[in-house]
Every structure is written in C-alpha cells, then in structure tokens.
Amino acid sequence: MPIQNTDISRIFNHIADLLEISGANAFRVRAYRNAARTVEDQSRSIVKMLEDGEDLAELPDIGKDLAEKIAEIAETGTLEMLDELEQKVPGELSKLLEIQQLGPKRVATLYHELGIESLEDLKKAAEDEKIRELEGFGKKTEQKILKELKRVQDSAKRTKLADAEQIVIPLCEYLQKIDGVKQVTIAGSYRRRRETVGDLDILVTCKKDSTVMERFTGYEDVTEVIAQGKTKSSIRLRSGLQVDLRVVPEVSYGAALYYFTGSKAHNVAVRKIAVKKNLKMNEYGVFKGKEDDEERVAGSDEEEVFASVGLAFIPPELRENRGEIEAAQEGCLPVLIDRSDIRGELHAHTHATDGRASLQEMVEAARSLGYSYLAITEHSQAVTVAKGLNRKRLEKQIEEIEKLTNEYGGFRILKGIEVDILKDGSLDLPDEVLAKLDFTICSVHSHFNLSADKQTERILRAMDNPYFNILGHPSGRLINEREAYPLNMEKIMKGAKERGVILELNAHPDRLDLNDHHCRMAKEMGIKIAINTDAHSTDGLNNMKYGIYQARRGWLSKDDVINTRRVAELLKFFKR
DNA sequence: GCCGTTTTCGGCCCGACTGTTTTCAGTCG
User: Fold this and answer.
1) Where in this chain does the record put each Helix-hairpin-helix DNA-binding motif class domain (predicted)?
2) Which of A139, A274, A380, A485 is most open to solvent, judged by the fewest CB atoms within 10 Å of its CB?
C-alpha cells in the first residue's frame, strides 16, 4: 500500500501530541499540526508530488525540515524522530488526549506521577481514586474522567450532517420561543456544511434579562450540563451530541457569527491579516486603536467584518483556509452553485427494482420540485438483492417511459440505467441494449477489496465502453460505515477527462461521494459533475440539498454541473 | 518548526469556563 496523505498527516499529528505531552515549545507543536493540515488538504498525492520532483517546502507551513521528514516517511513509512520520541513518552498517551478535561499537561502529570500509559490504566487509576490526589486534579475531575471514558468507548464518531439537522432544528425552534430571544443561528461546521459535525455551535442574541441560558441547559433532551456561564454554555444531548450556546450582544452578532462559524484554520489566518492592519479581531468585533481607546470598526454583520480586513464575503462552505482567503483578496472567489440552479434529477429508482415509489409518483414528485426532467436509472441484473433489471425488463421499462412521456408535455423522462461495472471491467448489460437509453450511470457494487491498481484498472476499462456516461458514487464510501475502496482517484479523473466521462456527486447524506476535495480536483481538471440524489423514494429527491452543500464546499459553480442545463444541452454531454 | 512590505531573529489568534485555587493554570473552541 503506497503512503497516502492521511498517513503522513496522522504521523505529524501524533508527533504533535507526543511533543506537547513532553512539554515541547507550543509553537513547534503547532507547526506539526499546521503541516498535517496542509498535507491533508492536498488533493494530489504528496508522494506523487515528491516523485515528480516538486519541492514540498513550497507548500504553506512546510519548510525544509518537514519536507525532509515527509520524504523519509515516503521512503520508510515512518520517522526515526518518532521512534526517538516514543522512547521518551509512550505513543499510546496521545489517546488520552481524546478525553475531555485531559490536555497535554495533565496527561504528562498522569504519566509521570502514576505511570498511566493507556486508557485502561487511566480507568483503573480513576476507579482506585488515585487521580484525585494529584496536584491540579480533584474529585470532580476524576469523576468526569470516568464519565468521559465511557463516552469515548460508546461513540467516537462524528455525526452526519443530516442526522445533526434532525436534532438541532427542534432545539433552535425551542430557543426561538424563549422570551427576549432575537436571533438564533447555527454556526460551526454545521453552517460550513461539512459532511459530519463534531458538535453544534448555536449563537443567540437576546435582551439583557433573557433566561435563555437557564432554558438551554434545561432543555428536555439534555443528559449532561458540561459548562454553564453568562455568555457560554455547553450541554450534551441524549444522542451524545454536544451543543454549545453563545450569547452575544446584537452589535457583535456578525463578528460572533463569523468567529464561531470557523473553521479555526480560516479564523487564525484572517486574524493574522487583521493584526497586520493593526486591527484586533475577536467575537465581539473588529477594533482599532490601543486598549484604553478602542474603536469598533465592524461587528454587527459578517459583510462589514470581511470588508474591514479587505476581503470579499466568503461563503461559509469555503472557510477552510484552502485558498479562499487569497481568492477573496484578489476578488476571484467562485460564484458557487445554488439549489435553484438545478433543473433536473439524473439518478432515481422506482419499485421496478429497490425503489419504493412508482414511475408515475417519481415523475409527479420531480415536477413538483420545479424540475424539467427526471431520469429513471434502475439497477442492472447483477444487483440481485435489488431485483436489478435484465435486458427484457429494461426494454419493458423503456416502453413504459415512452408511453408516460406522451402524457407529460414539457416534462422529459430520461431513459437511463445504473449499470454495474463487473469485476473484469465489463458492463452488466450488452451494448445494443445500452444504446437504446439516453445515458448510463456506471457503478461499482461488488469486489470492493481489489488493490488500488486493480480497482482503478477495472473502472478505466469500463470507461472505455462508449456507452459509459456517468461514474456513479465514485469512491464507494459510506460515511462512518464503510471506507472508500482503494482507488487511484487521480488516474480515474484523468481517464474520465480523456473519455468525456462525467463524475457523479452522489447527494445521499450517507454517501456524499465525491467528497469536497475530489469535487474541487474535478473542477480544476475540467471534468463535469452530475449532482444526483440516487432517490429510492419521492422523498429521496429532497436530498439534493446535501449534494449542493458538498458541491459548494468543493468550489463548484453552476457551469461545472450538468444537471443545471436544459435538457437539449444536457444530452450533448452524453454524446461520446 | 515556519515565516518575512517590521526578512535570518523573534514573533507565532483570542477569550470563556472550570476546578482547584487564594489569583490562576489548564482546557476548549
């Protein structure tokens, strides 16, 4: 298995943890974390860049030293420096940092005073009431550690965006009804529309005497009040999700919203720009002048906060410090795709296979969304569990669609198929049948465990078929459930570009496949994207919004996406 | 360990809450 970018970033983050525990310079620690992020954010393989003779020290936050360390990892899979570090502090200690309440200082104390090296050691020491005796610890901290140990075991995963939505919307409605509450906004990674969220950040403006904090911690779904103050409180809900509430004055609303939307990396980078302009930026506003004579220059809305540091407004989805700040300075941010740009759905199933609605119901639902076309794309015969269509049943469906089309003037029902890519790279239905369709989506639903080379070859071979139009859910991952299959995405994209193949951004909230990095990579390579819900019911068509979120995170504009086109123009993309 | 329109040294974002304290360190976001 070649060294992936995530392998390198994992090693750097691990080093940062261990350095921190061993009391190293905090800025040196940060340097490793910054570098880990840079590596993670590269859409191209770092090892490949190295092989191509590129100078990695040109990348942000990577200097001569870390470039050499990356080269060592690429060559040996590990770092001599890490081995040496682990002589000083056991590697497992970094796991203790996952426990809330435990940072590097306390972990160091636990290690040096009690010899604790693992979560098991920690549990035993807490149960034996040894921890409360340490300096800087106490009974309460010990009890919190025990509670945390249980939680970390139960759930370590981030919450999918759509699941978080189900939880947070009722909570916001509850907050909105409280006396004196004005604005209620969800900030954080939720507002940036990340595919998963770690916790939720809610921002509230209210009258001075509002009881919103007490009501928040008293919400019926709360299982634990983690912290409660005048302006900030944290709770844990039954689902395990942590929610932070911040109360800010209206005059600071924009600054606070900006601050708590993040990402942290984005904020840090923008605040550096502010410092250079002799401005101070925090959640209360942007300020000019000395401490005793401060003047607020921005704060009530986000636009003026951006303007105060010379930036165009950056949509939340882009705030990851992946080049959006430079683009905002130069005035060349992309105009991101919007939900209203979508003119039709290109991936839907009916109860002919594993869908739950009839052909007619799906058409009605698509029409009520204001679409002008809907493609029916059933599974093919290889997917037996989904009652995939064979040649005969597909031909029958084609007839049904043609008949129904005559009943709906102005609305186009496209004839498609989600045909399986078989193990040898052939397609699951003969070419002469595929020729009768408007287009095909071709997907991998089996043999996920081939090597990256074999899987890549398999898909490229399938793409050689002139009837191959869209590659369905290209990586095969299911968020929190199944990793993407090993694949050389760069090669796949190159192959798609050469052959005029379109890539699907599957909008299902469990898939969101392509991910944001891959969307951006495709855009940069000039590959077109289809945002498809893969709807198995009429309601499933509404998942389009999650696809739009992901597309926006991937810097996509209307022009990058084919189902923003009118049907006549759309069909041209399927001519190879 | 990185970085440079304060450029090879000396900086490196900023504030709230908790628990263990007697004025603040540690942690978190």
Assistant:
1) 54-73, 94-113, 129-148
2) A139
